[in-house]
Each structure stands twice: as C-alpha cells, then as structure tokens.
C-alpha cells in the first residue's frame, strides 16, 4: 500500500514530529503540504493529513490545499492534529474537511503538545516536552493498527 503523509506545522514543529514518526513507522512518503503536487496525490492508496490547531481550527493553508486537490472519490485518508488542549474534536473538524473533499476517513489521531501561544508564554508554555516518547509511541501504535486493518 502506497501511503503519503502531508502536513503543516508552523508553531513549534509539534505536528511535524508526529508526521515523521508515523511515516517512519510504515515507511511512507512524507511531504509538507506545499511540496505536494496535487496531481501526484492520486498515486497514493492512503493519505494522512496533519495539522496543529490555531484559534480552534486546523492550519488555514492546509485547509486551502485540501480544497484545491483534484477531485477524489472514496480514496482513503486519515488525519492527525496536535494542540494545547489535545481535544479530539479539533481532529474531527479536519476529518470533516477531508471527507467533504471526497476522501473516506479511516482514522483520527490527536495529542497534546507544547503550547506557548499568547499569555501561555508568560508561564513558559504548557505541555513542555510534548509530543514526548509516549505520544510518539501512541502515534506509532495508531498507524500500525490502521495499516493492519487494511
Ligand atoms: C496562534 C496560535 C493559536 C493556538 N490556538 C490553540 C487553540 O485554539 N486550542 C489549542 O488547544 N491549542 C492552540 N494552540 C496551540 C497549538 O495548537 C499547539 O502548540 C500545536 O502543537 C502547534 O502545532 P505545530 O507546532 O505543529 O504548529 C495555538 C497556538 C498558536 C501559535
């Protein structure tokens, strides 16, 4: 199965850490969203979309990138997010966007990550050191489970 991981990670590289772990676990191709030629995406059986969360939403550029992809029908995808709160609802919002474009979303992964946004900077940020080894292990378990089910 040919798998592509694509993401944007603008705050602290937190989502990029998850993206790299997932890609390495299953030997997938990995590209930042702006390195993907939209038409090459059709070469892949499964695509993972990852984003940090900013003001309650996934990264705007990543969402626009998804909008501009060539039409797909029932192509499989999964989504992952990192955020200060680690709220799975954030991930569902990204899954919703991906489904609206025609993908069949077969998995979602979320984790808490270092957040030093705005006033949190004053206290040195929250979730220091995350994603940590446990988070990266959880991401690996998630993707291996997903691939085994396919
Ligand atoms: C401008 C900004 C807004 C943010 N808004 C939220 C938010 O609404 N909820 C939340 O849980 N985390 C929020 N965060 C924290 C990020 O989601 C978190 O640090 C995430 O891991 C960043 O991913 P990245 O390092 O891959 O960009 C925000 C961070 C920034 C910089």
TrEMBL record:
Q: Which Gene3D superfamilies does this entry report, sorted A to Z?
A: 3.40.50.360
Q: Which SUPFAM superfamilies match?
A: Flavoproteins
> How is this protein named in the record?
Flavodoxin family protein
Q: Which GO terms describe its biological process?
A: heme biosynthetic process
GO MF terms listed in the record are: FMN binding; menaquinone-dependent protoporphyrinogen oxidase activity
PANTHER family recorded for this chain?
PROTOPORPHYRINOGEN IX DEHYDROGENASE [MENAQUINONE], PROTOPORPHYRINOGEN IX DEHYDROGENASE [QUINONE]
Source superkingdom: Archaea
Pfam families in the record, alphabetically? Answer: Flavodoxin_5
The residues covered by the Flavodoxin-like domain are: 4-147
> Do you know which InterPro entries this protein is assigned to?
Flavodoxin/NO_synth (IPR008254), Flavodoxin_dom (IPR026816), Flavoprotein-like_sf (IPR029039), Protoporphyrinogen_IX_DH (IPR052200)
């Amino acid at each position: 199965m040919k798998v592509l991981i694509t993401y944007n990670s603008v705050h602290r590289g937190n989502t990029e850490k998850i993206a790299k772990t997932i890609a390495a676990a299953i030997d997938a191709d990995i590209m930042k969203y702006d390195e993907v030629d939209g038409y090459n995406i059709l070469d892949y059986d499964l695509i993972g979309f990852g984003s940090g969360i900013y003001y309650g939403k996934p990264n705007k550029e990543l969402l626009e990138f998804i909008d501009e992809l060539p039409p797909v029908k029932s192509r499989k995808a999964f989504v992952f997010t990192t955020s200060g709160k680690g709220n799975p609802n954030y991930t569902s919002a990204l899954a919703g966007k991906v489904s609206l474009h025609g993908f069949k979303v077969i998995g979602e992964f979320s984790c808490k990550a270092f957040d030093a946004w705005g006033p949190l900077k004053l206290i040195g940020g929250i979730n220091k050191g995350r994603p940590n080894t446990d988070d990266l292990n959880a991401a690996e378990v998630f993707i291996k489970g997903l691939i085994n089910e396919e």
